[in-house]
Amino acid sequence: MRRTLRGAWSRRSTLLPLLLLTVVVTAGCVTVLGVAAAAGTSAALAVPLVVLGAVAVPASGRELAAARRGEVALARLRGLEGRALQVLLALEPLLVLVVGGVAGWLLGTLGAWVATSAWTDAEPAAYTPGGVLAAAAVVLAGLVGVLAGMAGALRGPLGEQVTPAARPRRRGLVATFVDVLVVVAAVVAAYRASTGTGTAPAEDPDLLVLAGPALIGLAVGLAAVLLVRLGARLVVARGGGSLAGFLASRRLARSGDAGDALRVLVAAAVVAAVAGTGASEVDDWTEQTARLRAGAPLAVGFPELDAAGVLRVSHELDPEGRWLMGAVVVPGGGSVPARRVFLDTERYAAVAGDLLAGTPAAGVADRVSELGGTGAGVVTGGTLSVTVQGVSRRGAGVLRPLVTLELRDAGGEERFVPAFAEVPLDGSPVTVERPLTGCTGGCLVERVVLDRTPGTSPLPYVLSGLEVTGAGRTDLDLLDGGWAPEGRDRFGRPGGALPVDLGLLARTADRPQVAVRTTEAPTTPVLATTTATWPDGPPLLDSVGGDERPAEVLERYAALPLVEADGVLADLPRAAVGSPPTVPAAEVMVLVGPDAPADRVAALRDADPSGPAEVRTLAGVRDAVAEESGSAQALVYALVAGFSLGVAVLVLVTAVARERAGWLRDVAALRVVGLPAARLRTAGLAEAAWLAAAAVLATVVGAVLAVRLLLAHLALVDVPEHAVPLTSGLAALPLVLAGLVVAAVVLVVAGRGRSAPVERSRPAILREEAAR
C-alpha cells in the first residue's frame, strides 16, 4: 500500500486530472438524481454527462499509461505479464477513483440540495440511494475505462515503452469502431427526433435523443480534428508559408492528443449551447404562458357572483374604468369553441395594457375594442316611446290599451315595461313614454304583449310605434324587424298579435295577445384561436349562460388571454345581455391593472359575499406553470452542461500538459540549429490558434445542428393542455457564449501549454534527458 501511495504521489500531475474528472462526473450524476428524487424531474438528464465521461475517462487512462511507460517496461522485463501486471497498474487509479467518487458524492449531494431549494418548492433530499449507486457506478465504470485506455500500453512494443518521446500511432481498430459508432448514434438520434419516434414525456425522455447533442458534438468534433490534421499535412507536404506556420502544421499533423481532446470540448460546448438555448426558451415560454393564463397582473376571484354581479362590482368600485375589468372564463369541454373568455372589453386597454406584448396574443389589443357595443334588438336604457291607434270607427269613446315590453337583462332576469294609453276610436295615434331602467348593461328585447285595461272595450287597435331614445342608442325602432304571433288558438289559428303594415294588430279578444321577434339573433363578434373550428356549421358562441348565438370571427390568433391556445374571446356585457344565469363551471373574476390603488384592491376583496376573495398574482401563476410543466428540468439540463464543460476542460488540460514535455524538447532541439525562441513561440501560438478556430467552427456547426434537429424533442417540459407550444429556434446569446468559451479555453490551455520559457527550453535539457 505504501508503494502504491508513493507511486501515486510521484504521478500526481497525471492522476490529479483523473481525480477531478471523477469528482465532476460523480457530482453531476448525483446532483441530477437528487433533484429528480426531490422534485420529480428526469434522472435521464445526466445522459450527456455520462456520454462525455465515457469518452474522457479512457483518454485519461491512456495518459496514465503513457506516464507509466517506463514502469510497465521494467515490469515486463522482470517477467510480469497478464493479470498480475493489470492489478499492479489498476491499484493507483482505483485509489484515485474511490477518493474522487466519495468527494463527488458529497459535492453532488450538496449541489442537489442547493438546486432543489433554488429551483423548486420541493423538500430537498439529504440522502438518496440512487446517488450512492451512481457514485459507485461512476467509480466502477471509470476503472473499466482507465484499464481500457491502458490496454494499448500493455500490448505495445517494448521498444516504444522505453523511448522518452511518445511516437505518433495510427488509430487502432477499436478506436475507429468507436468513432463510427458515435457518428451512427448521432444520425440515429437525429432521425428518431425528426420522425417523432423519440418524442416522450418530460419525466421519461428518450435516452438516445437526450444524448443526441453530445453525440452530434462528438461527431462534428471528430470531423473537425480530421480536417485539421488533413490541412496540416497538406501544408507540410507543400512546404510553403512561414516557418512558424510550417512548424505548427508539422506538430498538428504528427501529434493528435490535443486534437482528440477537442472532440470532448466541442461536444460539451454543443451540449452547453443546446442547454442554454433550451433554458432560455423554457424561461420565455413560462413567462408567456403565465401572462396568457393570468390575463392581468392581479386577478380577484368571486365564486359566489355571476356575470352581472362581477360587472356591477367592477363598475361600482371603478366607475371610470381605469383599474378593474370584469371577466368570466368558461373552461368548456369537448371542443375548443366551448372554451371561452368574456371580458369587459371597454376597459381592456386600461387594465391589461401591454401585458401580452411579446406573447402569441400580442395583437389582441388592437382588435379587442371591436368586440363591444350592442347588437340589434338590444337596448341599454333611455326612454321607451309607445304609439297606439284605433282601427274601428264605430261608436264613440276611447280604447284603453295596455302594451308591455318584455326584456331580459344582463343577469338573465326578465324585466317588464308597461305602457297605458287612452286612444280615440277615430284612428288618431297616441304616444306615451316610459323610462327604461335596469338596462345599463344591456337588455334583449324578447316579446311585446298587447292587452287592454280590465273593463274596457275589446275593440282592435294597432301598435304603430315602439322606439327607444336617449341613453345608449338614439331613435332605435324596435318594430323594424320581423315579428310573429306567439301561440295558437283552439282552431289552430295564430293567437297572438298579427304583424300589419302599421305595426302589430291586437284583434278583438278578451285575452292578451303576444308577438315575438322573428329576426335572426344578432351576430356576436369574437376573436378565436387558430384551433377553434365549427365543423357542423357557421361559428356559434355559447354565452355566459350557455345558450348558443351566431358569431362572427374577426381575427384568429395563436393564443388568447385566459384561454391560452384554445378558445374564443368575446365582450362580457354584450354576451351577458339576455343570457340565462351564468353556468356553474364559470370562473368569475375581476382583473386588476398594474397601477390599481391598494384601497381599491382591498375593497374589491371585501366585495365577495362569501368572505375575502382569493387574489391570484402573476408571480403565483408563473410558479404554478413552472411546477405543472416541470420547467426546472431545463435548468438541471443547463447544470449538466456546466459539468460537461468541466469534464472537457480537464481532458484538454491533461492532453496539453502531456504534450508539454515533448514541445519543450522540440523547442530545445530547434534552438540547437539556431532558431530564435521568439519564432518558436510564434509557432506555438499559431498551433493554438488553429485548434481554437477549428473548435469554434465545430461548436457553431454542432450547436446549430443540435438545436435544429433535437431541441424540440428533448422533452425539457411537459406542455399542459391548452397551453401554447414550446417553440425551438436558434438563440444568438448561448451560441456566441459557447463559441467564446471554447475559444478562450483552447487559447488559454493550448497557448499556455505551447509556451516555451527560455530557461525551460534551453538546449541543455537534451543532454540531461540523454543522461537519465
From TrEMBL:
Keywords linked to the UniProt accession: Cell membrane, Membrane, Transmembrane, Transmembrane helix
Pfam families in the cross-refs: FtsX (PF02687)
Its membrane topology: Multi-pass membrane protein
InterPro entries, per database record: ABC3_permease_C
Keyword Membrane: yes
Domain ABC3 transporter permease C-terminal: 49-154
Ranges annotated as spanning the membrane: 37-59, 84-107, 127-151, 172-191, 207-228, 261-279, 634-657, 688-711, 731-750
Chief place of localization: membrane
Entry's localization field: Cell membrane
Protein name as annotated: ABC3 transporter permease C-terminal domain-containing protein
Organism encoding this protein: Nocardioides oceani
